[in-house]
Structure formats: C-alpha cells, structure tokens
Design brief:
This protein is about 40% helix and about 15% strand. Helix 6 runs antiparallel to helix 7 and helix 7 crosses helix 8.
Amino acid sequence: MVYHTTVLLHEGVEALKVKPDGVYVDATFGGGGHSNVILSHLSENGRLIAFDQDPDALRNVPNDPRFKLCQANFRFMKNFLAVSGVEKVDGVIADLGVSGFQFDEADRGFSFRFDAVLDMRMNKSQAISAKELVNEADQTELKRIFREYGETTFAGLIAKKIVDQREISPLVTTGDLATLIRSAVPERKQKSELTKIFQALRIEVNDEMGVLEAFLMLLPDVLKQDGLAVVMSYHSLEDRLVKHFFRSGNFEDKLAKDVFGNIERTMDPVGKVVVPSDEEIEINPRARSAKMRIGKKR
C-alpha cells in the first residue's frame, strides 16, 4: 500500500525556494513526500526537521544525517526546534489534514468506507476518540461540532438522532454512525453528509483548528526574515485561517494600519492561491479540494 500520495508535491517545494545550506521544517511528515524532495535540494550542510505524531509515519523516515523526525504535534514546533539547537529556519511547509494511509487503514476509523471502531485519533495515545465523543457529548455540543466543522444544515437532526440512538445502544463503529446518518438525510445527500459529519468529528477529536491556529501564530517566531511558509489545506475552514493570518496577521481578518497607512502584520502573502492541475486531480482525486498559500516573514 502506498502510504500517501503527496498533493502539490513539487509546487510546494518550489514555493519554499530551498537554499542548499538552509534549515527547513516539514511540519507534517506523513509519507515523507515533501521531505524527500527538500532533501534532494539540500547540500551536506543543509538541515531538515520534520514533525509527525503518528507512530506509523516512522516507517517512512529516510536514513539521512541531515534529517530529524520529532514525534510530536507541530503545534509544539518552537519548543522542539529549540531542543534541536535551532532558533530560526529558512522555511516551513505544512500539508494539513489526514494522510491517505490513515484514511485507507480501516482500523484507524477515519473513513465510512470501512466498518471499524470509531477512532479518528491521529495520535492514538490521546484519551478521547470519536467513539467517546459521539456517545458522551450532549446534543447541543454535537450540533455545534457538526454545524461548525461540517458546515451542514442537518447538524441538529443528526445530533438528535445520535442522542436518541445511544439511549438504546451505543454507537461503536463507523458502520453504526454511517447507518444512522443515512437514515437521517435524503438519499441524494447521503455521501456529502457522511463526508461532512466524519470530517467534523475528526476535526474535533484532533483539535485540528486549534492546532492550526497555534502553528500559524508560531511562524513569525521561528522563521528568519524573508523566510517562507507554505501551507496546503483541504477545506474552507483551514484555508480561511491561513488566508486571514497571512493577509492580516490575525484570524478575524482585521486589518490594522500604522500612521502611514501600512498594514501591520508579521507575514506577507505571496502570490495567489495555488490549486492542483486537472491532471493531478485525475491521478489523485483526493487532491481536488487542496489549496496552497504562501506567506513570507517580514
């Protein structure tokens, strides 16, 4: 099984403008796609530090003295860089979301394509899985999660059906949840609603939005002046945070200006949003929702 087909592989690394002797971070190592291409551009004096909290990613670590993998969430990037003797880096790349391997491994519980225990934890040492969440969160909280992270108009209905169902028997597997969702919505909307609800639960279980905000806030601290950050996102919630932070320096997109009318921010957006080509989407359909944004440290 291919661990993960990296989206915008060469476009992402090209956007980093890799310096042979530079120091770089791959915040989402996964299958090592971006890392391997970055390493091919580095001299023997270059350095690449990668992050991945999933132990399964260890199988992809290259045998290269210039490379170091930190088994941690990239929200802790600054601390781990300090421990590694690195204060500032030349560039950071992040490919957000779930790897193809995590989606395709049935027992990880990320996908409604398989019937497996509801899990969805990127780091399996976390206490709360999707199974605990759907069986313990109250109806109001479930509705909030589905509406905010799934952007679905069926949030309230599905939350109520979950609460009603678990009074009879708990929802244990992805199949249990998928069956319930299918029973709640019109047939023509079943696939899209399954996708939205599973996405919402995954985001909540892994605190993906909180992690992304923390990561973006760290970028001005860890990047050298003119250092580049390349971020690939896969849904509008992520992309909005990245776009706003690069453009305004905050997540509310509130532009603050100095007395001369200059925008006060720590990063500048570079170029326009980049999306996969039709050819890439044909080869890898999972790429279709990807958006890549580039920011430069002031």
